[in-house]
Amino acid sequence: METKQAIAPENNPTMVSAAYGGLSVVRLAPGDQQLTADYTLSAEAERVRATVLTLDTPPRVVLAVEQPAAAAGSFTLAPLWNRTDYRLRMTALKNGQEIAVSANRLFRTGPIPGVVVNYIHPEDYTFNSSGRSPASPSILRLSNGSLLVSHDIFWGGGGQNLTHLYRSDDGGVSWYFVSELYPCFWASLFTSKGVLYAMGTSCEYGALNLFCSTDEGVSWSKPMAILPAGSRETGGPHKGPMPVLEHEGRLWTGIDFGSWKLGGHASGAVSAAVDDDLMNAASWSCTGFTAAQPDWPDAPKGNAHGTLEGNLVAGPDGEVYNILRYQHDNCVPAYGKAVVLRMDKAHPDSQPVFHKIIDFPGNLTKFSVRFDSVTKRYYALVNNITGSNMKQRNVLSLISSQDMLHWTLQRGILNYEDNNYWEDSTQVGFQYVDFTFDGEDIVLVSRSAINGAYNYHNANHVTVHRIRQYRL
To answer: What is the pLDDT of residue 472?
Structure first.
């Protein structure tokens, strides 16, 4: 397999803008009165200095800390004032002289629920060729128990082409930067036969690409295009970081086609046999795409904006189904329905057919559905709406189903609607959640907008949370 080091700046103009002289800040994790900041360094330096400054003109130094230089290192900077914006500057020193300097990174301190994997301030333009909001997280548990999390960097109308990968070797308590993927957006992490894969588009509505790694994400292959690129104007491939289902020797994952500019999306899937060469485009089949129809049985009254971000699951009958986010917020009812399509296992290039519209809380936001082989139940984490705001994402709940069609509330996970938090549902969101089973627990990753995000949608954190004994 031909590979390249994924962090090599020459392969990615975004990283060139983030590193000067070989020093790059690769992870920020603000917290209660403190900041954790990780760096990578290729220059031959003796020491690294981290300086926190105010945003005043001229700026004032709040604190400065030095430590011996390393190829990869971390600072914990404290004490700092909560709910305050600061600027971080790192420099590499040799013989007392600065030989490298990082990009200036903005951050805001304050208590954050869960563990922060990474953070980008809404006015931090370090990765602006892709965006300035961490988005679309995916989580994967490796066979050795380590956790991998990926997230892309988003902004509406931006390049949307960069994905970062982080790892935890202690169950999600601490995280460190591993590599990046470029061009990659909306990535899903999965493994097959001991090989790690990332499937995503090259940008919004770009080519559907597949990358592979044989060293757990440190280095990656060149991208292989499964589907060609489209555009916002003509429509193209669309996906979230959706689960990849392995069923009866075949891998399946949801994919959509269309664009918001054209009014919505139609939904289908791509699939490949496990024993085939996944890095060969000829190994993959596409079902074609089925658009939502207003005359489907039990369809809401009105012109829904289509389906998207589907979850491929094996039903109790052994067939493959796609449980889809259903964008009917302009219909009557405006909330609470999901669409289920059925695949043809024998003919994986056949167009999906309508199966059922079901009651489903949290249908207006991307959700992941996974099957637990112990309880024989399907689980999903959803943004159930508790108020009048149809865009509400500040409540997160665990739901489950025995038959994938009838869903019940298992327990509330996060509720920032009713806890008197100082930001409301227009500013706070725990969304695009993905999760993995970890023994008796669920470990979830969230695109989290809180404590000074641009808005509820354009998040500033990627956070990980553990649901203890989820089966109870």
So the answer is: 84
The predicted structure's pLDDT at residue 19: 57
- Tell how strand 3-5 and strand 236-238 pair up: unpaired
What mean pLDDT value characterizes the chain? 95
Give me the DSSP letters along 23-53: EEEEEEEEETTEEEEEEEE-S--SEEEEEEE
Spatial contact of 91 and 101, defined as CB atoms under 8 Å apart: yes
Q: Which DSSP state fits 16?
A: H
Distance CA 99, CA 161 (A): 30
Cα 78 vs. chain centroid, distance in angstroms?
29
Q: List, as one string, the DSSP characters of 115-182.
A: EEEEE--TT--TTTTT-SEEEEEEEEE-TTS-EEEEEEEE-TTS----EEEEEESSTTSS-EEEEEET
Give the whole-angstrom CA distance, residue 16 versus residue 302. Answer: 48
Write out pLDDT tens, residues 98-142: 999 999 999 999 999 999 999 999 999 999 999 999 999 999 999
259 close to 238: Cβ distance less than 8 angstroms: yes
Contact 428, 394 (CB under 8 A): yes
Assign 3-class secondary structure to 414-431: EECCCCCCCCCCCCCEEE
Instruction: Answer whether 182's CB lies under 8 Å from 163's CB.
Output: yes
Determine the residue type at 312.
L
Rounded to whole angstroms, how far apart are CA atoms 373 and 197? 23
Answer left, alpha or beta for residue 157, where phi above 0 means left and psi between -120 and 50 means alpha: left
With vertex at residue 86, the alpha carbon angle to CA 80 and CA 87, rounded to the nearest 5 degrees, is: 125
CA 141 to chain centre: 15
Q: Distance between CA atoms of 296 and 340, rounded to whole angstroms?
A: 11
Quickly tell me which residue has 């009713």 as its tokens: 418
Residues in the chain with pLDDT < 70?
A: 1-20
Smallest CA-to-CA distance from 441 within 416, 411, 417, 419 is with 411
Q: How far apart are CA 462 and CA 399, in angstroms?
A: 22
CA-CA distance, 254 to 173, in Å (whole number)? 31
